[in-house]
Write a sequence for this structure.
């Protein structure tokens, strides 16, 4: 673990993973991009975004959004490790906390039907 | 998992999971609150009063525990969410508690964003002696602490609306 904590490539990975994670999650929410849809009443999984089936209860997209976000952020983080160290070091670290803070109002807005009913 | 139901009822099983989820959340809340107060108001001399001792913890030592607790709490919450969606959310909506449900949805969003921040959080705390990371470490910790408090309070309210015994 201490090797990871001193690794320059791991530093690049975690920086990009954090920034991309928050951004991708908002994109998944707004664009409806779950990796899969889960039907909790029947335990059915379906790839991508699908609508509820008649007589099978509600559907859940949150698991799929989370999966898309983590996989997407891991891919982007992995690709970022290929950047030269000098370029990777130029990624502003404040984005790690600023992007998640910026994501919150957008996610609140995406829930507008709950606030206005 | 069905063998478990030979010994305890289905309701007891999910109640135990919910209690474990809550206990992990409380431990996480404590660790993150200690860290956040320590980075926002660092103690510069020997601790005396309770508030100073509260802030005078070895914050770096909490990092791995916070990550593990967040992941465990997240997994437990995600597991319980299956039953919540069918047996809790539907009655909440029928009762017209739309804002309560909205806050629960936001809680799930915040939990995932927090999950994605954990590797960075861990890395910057493992490099706690590097001054160039002081700012990002501080605000990342504060964000996670606020997120944890928000999620805890929302979960508590939702449990009050329709939790144990309902």
């Amino acid at each position: 673990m201490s090797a990871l904590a001193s690794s320059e490539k791991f530093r690049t990975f975690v920086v990009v993973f954090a920034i991309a994670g928050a951004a991708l999650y908002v994109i998944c929410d707004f664009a409806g991009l779950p990796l899969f849809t889960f039907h909790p009443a029947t335990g059915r999984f379906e790839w991508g975004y699908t609508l509820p089936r008649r007589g099978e209860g509600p559907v859940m997209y949150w698991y799929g959004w989370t999966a898309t976000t983590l996989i997407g952020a891991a891919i982007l983080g992995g690709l970022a490790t290929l950047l030269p160290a000098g370029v990777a070091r130029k990624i502003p670290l404040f984005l790690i906390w600023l992007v998640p803070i910026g994501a919150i109002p957008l996610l609140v807005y995406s829930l507008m039907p709950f606030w206005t009913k | 998992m069905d063998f478990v139901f030979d010994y305890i009822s289905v309701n007891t099983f999910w109640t135990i999971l919910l209690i474990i989820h809550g206990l992990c959340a409380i431990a996480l809340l404590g660790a993150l609150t200690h860290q956040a107060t320590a980075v926002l108001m660092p103690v510069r001399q020997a601790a005396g009063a309770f508030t100073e001792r509260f802030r005078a913890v070895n914050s770096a030592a909490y990092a791995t525990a916070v990550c593990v607790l967040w992941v465990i709490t997240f997994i437990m919450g995600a597991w319980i969410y299956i039953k919540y969606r069918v047996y809790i959310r539907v009655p909440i909506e029928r009762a017209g508690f739309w804002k309560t449900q909205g806050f629960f949805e936001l809680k799930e969003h915040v939990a995932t964003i927090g999950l994605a921040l954990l590797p960075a959080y861990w890395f910057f705390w493992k490099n706690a002696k590097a001054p160039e990371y002081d700012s990002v470490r501080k605000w990342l910790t504060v964000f996670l602490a606020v997120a944890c408090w928000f999620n805890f309070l929302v979960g508590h309210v939702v449990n009050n609306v329709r939790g144990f015994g309902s």
